[in-house]
Amino acid sequence: MQKRNLTFWQMWNLSFGFFGVQIAYSLQSANISRIFATLGADPHNLSYFWILPPLMGIIVQPVIGALSDRTWCRFGRRIPYLFVGALISVLVMCLLPNAGSFHMAVGGAMIFGLISLMFLDTSINVAMQPFKMLVGDMVNEEQKGTAYSIQSFLCNAGSLVGYLFPFIFAALGIANTAPEGVIPDSVIYSFYVGAAILILCVIYTTVKVKEMPPKEYAEFHGLAETPSGKQEKVGVFRLLVRAPKAFWTVGLVQFFCWAAFMYMWTYSNGAIAANCWGTSDVSSAGYQAAGNWVGVVFAVQAVGSIIWATVLPRFRSHKLAYAVSLLVGAAGFISVMFVHDRYLLFASYFLIGFAWAAMLALPFTILTNSLKGDHMGTYLGLFNGTICLPQIVAALCGGFLLKLTGGSQPMMLAIAGILLVLGAAAVSAVKEKKE
Question: What domain range includes position 183?
Fold first, then answer.
């Protein structure tokens, strides 16, 4: 079967819902440390709160991948899962930032926040993974790089919006401080608006995208069996043994990259508060102002990612683009330790955006081009382990490393830079070929 080309707008529609999902994800990643610090968490224990999101991802995404590989109904294979995940995300986004508003004791508020975080990241993972699978399912090899670049653009655009929400609401006069143990209204309203945008974007993709029926899918991917539940049933461990070399080599690069960004999400608030506001008091106006500034610099990172995503297709080699991007991002991370002017941080986080753009587009381009159509969802779900596992390891080691640095959160970002250098070196092991 001739593998047809999709128009730009068809590829855009495949990933448009990702814009809303990423708003939810960016609100979570930019504000979780701030939320739990406000609720009373010790800075040395902040990294432990970050174990839940990747732990949920490593459990949920392979399951969603395997189930959706065997699913076919009138709404498609992947779309039912992303829609249900989005609905649950909306509900939990309205609950999480209110963890400190129900007049519970500190321990009770912390437990409520942890349970909400667990459900939020589980539902985000359920909604997020199908978008990656849709590209793998419906786009031919020649266009996958472009399709994942479009997805990367929408992802970063969503990040830009989500990161800026608390800053914008504070600028509009919505309270950015609150009684001790209570999350400021600027953060709460950000989650509310993000939830509304999420469901609207997912509805758009649900209406616009029509997935291939089983017979057409099998022909498109050159499969002997249809993907409607009659395909060969293979255990997860057997699939891992069969996995192409790209699965493991790109996974090694992923390990260093995602550990680095885990430390960025965990320690940027404390690092910026210490370096630019000279405070570590989480109840102070300076610390909360630094929390808003984290959203601003993360938005600058998203701008850097959007711009760099347009440059990546110009590289002849995916490996060269990957390595260069990670090294530039490493320079951005290390520079944060030396910056004490909040506006100079724009340059640092802009460079970090180069690494983020490569991480969103290149691993999935390299991997899906090395896979056949059968078990695509399961493999992408398993590949998510190369995103989640390093975050879990980094979270477990975060408190120990913070003690080694004398409690310096800016130093933790320098460690993130070193991890990206190691990731760039690991790119040399990646082999690009159809297996």
Answer: 8-223+236-429
Contacts of 113 (CB under 8 A, 6+ apart): 35, 36, 39, 96, 99, 100
Dist. CA 135–CA 129, nearest whole Å: 11
| Three-state DSSP state, 73 | strand
What span, in angstroms and rounded, lies between the C-alpha atoms of 421 and 305? 18
Domain count, the chain: 1
Rounded Cα distance between 360 and 19, Å, is 13
For the cut 80, the answer to whether the pLDDT of residue 363 exceeds it is yes
Per-range mean pLDDT, top range of 136-140, 285-289, 352-356, 376-380: 352-356
Residue 230 lies in a domain: no
- Residue 3 in any domain: the answer is no
Name the residue among 92, 81, 125, 98 with its Cα closest to residue 181: 98
73 DSSP β-pair partners: 76
| Per-position DSSP letters for 385-408, written without gaps between them | HHHHHHHHHHHHHHHHHHHHTTS-
CATH number of domain containing 26: 1.20.1250.20
> Would you say residue 335 lies in a domain?
yes
- For residues 31 and 39, what is the distance between their CA atoms, to the nearest angstrom? 12
User: 435 by DSSP, 3-state: which?
Assistant: coil
For 168-213, the pLDDT digits (tens) are 999 999 988 878 778 889 999 999 999 999 999 999 999 999 988 8
The predicted model scores a pTM of: 0.74
**What DSSP string describes 82-109?**
HHHHHHHHHHHHHHGGGTTSS---HHHH
